[in-house]
Amino acid sequence: MAETYKEHLYALIVCGGAGTRLWPRSRKSTPKQFLPKFYGEKTLFGQTLDRAKLLSTPDHIYFIVTSDDYAKQMVQMHSEILPQNIIVEPFGRNTAMAVGVGAAYIRKADFEAVIMNFWSDAVIVENDLFCQSLNLAAETAFGGDWLVTVGLKPAFPHTGLGYIETKGKFGSKNGEVLRVNSFKEKPNLATAREFLSQGNYFWNTGIYVWSAVSIFNAFSKHSPALYQLLEKIFNSIGTPEGKEIFLKAYEGAESLPIDTAVSEKADNLLLVPASFGWSDIGDWKITYELKDKDVNGNVVEFFGEGGAHLGFETKNCLVEAQSRLVATVGVSDLIIVEMKDVVLVCGREKAQDVKNIVNTLKEQKKDQYL
Question: Does the N-terminal or the C-terminal CB of the chain have fewer CB atoms within 10 Å?
Fold first, then answer.
């Protein structure tokens, strides 16, 4: 069986995130997954593709993106990507539609496919542990009508992530697999501590593995309106009217995350406990926490030829500079991002509120800054 599932193992890389909390570096033209010198030598997208290639072959790796420009960038940067495996959404309809459409195209290619769903903008380290967890999830998904998620053992009482509650073991010869009882929203600190102490709660990474048949069955049961649209897309792939049906389906689709549309309602959800390093790197505070600091607790990085920093009595700050000298005196706990056309200065604890700037710029139609 082990070899059989590997013959049908596919990866779907979802590239829809706008990364608004990482403005002004993350923009429409270059969202965080395509940023050079953001986290590591390769882009986050490049790192995600490398992980997918450890588990599958390029012809079995599909992509779903929200822009033709992103598709062109991907093919230019990575010659192994097959253009015919890139699905371009006419506009974003959240993750349920994205993974459903991806599953439709992969199901058309291989009815027995098992699909690993990857987000292109996550930071993951310890690829060997990651591959072990994904292979176990894939083998489990291939073995029956199961939706399998990968949950991380909590290292501390995190209040910025959702949790998954488990309820006992599911039989597996090759590793630990647990049954899922419920999803929990981002908790307050006291609740997060309680989750940690109980030992049967896991951080929700949003990494899912399922067969193409099982996810379509789940849509049929839990989100019938989306299911009908996905079936229309599936049946129209490769036909003359396919593009028109695709567009109409998106126009009629409700914008829902996959957790809300399917996962939180499903009674056939399993969890593979994992311990690899992971972060959704969702804002500048998390970016600061992930990166190496100097003796004063500062993270200082340059991503352009003119970027420089001169600091006195500067502590626990993140400074990113592209084109100019950034000088700081007597400041602490700040986020400072300098670019050619804009400078962000933000309290580190207020990093989530950067999205408010982006929303206001949209309202004011100042698209040159987006």
Answer: N
Q: What tens digit of pLDDT does each residue of 229-249 get? A: 999 999 999 999 999 999 999
Tell how far CA 225 is from the center of its chain: 25
> What span, in angstroms and rounded, lies between the C-alpha atoms of 252 and 331?
50
Per the listing, tokens 């062109």 go with: 72
262 in the same domain as 305: no
Residue numbers of the domain that contains 210:
2-279
Q: How far apart are CA 342 and CA 337, in angstroms?
A: 8
What CATH number is attached to the domain comprising 220?
3.90.550.10
CB 34 within 8 A of CB 168: no
User: Taking 50 as the threshold, does the pLDDT of residue 2 lie above it?
Assistant: no
Please say if the pLDDT value at position 152 is more than 90: yes
Domain match, 207 and 79 both: yes
Domain count, the chain: 2
Eight-class DSSP state of 111: T
Q: How confident is the model at residue 158, as a pLDDT?
A: 85
Distance CA 95, CA 63 (A): 13
Per-residue pLDDT tens over the stretch 304-351: 889 999 999 999 999 999 999 999 999 999 999 999 999 999 999 999
Tokens 């013959």 -> residue: 7
CB-based contacts of 244, cutoff 8 Å, min separation 6: none
Cα-flanking dihedrals φ and ψ of residue 325, to 5°? -75, 125
- Give, for 157, the enclosing helix (H) or strand (E): none
Q: Hey, what's the torsion of the CAs at 87, 220, 109, 141, to 10 degrees?
A: 110
**Alpha carbons 255 and 110: distance in angstroms, whole number:** 27
Whether 311 and 240 share a structural domain: no
Under the phi-then-psi rule, with left for phi > 0, alpha for psi from -120 to 50, and beta for the rest, what region is 213? alpha
Q: How confident is the model at residue 1 (pLDDT cuts 50, 70, 90)?
A: very low
- Identify which of 276, 365, 283 has the alpha carbon closest to the alpha carbon of residue 32: 283
3-state SS, residue 202:
strand
| Six-digit token string for 160 | 């910025």
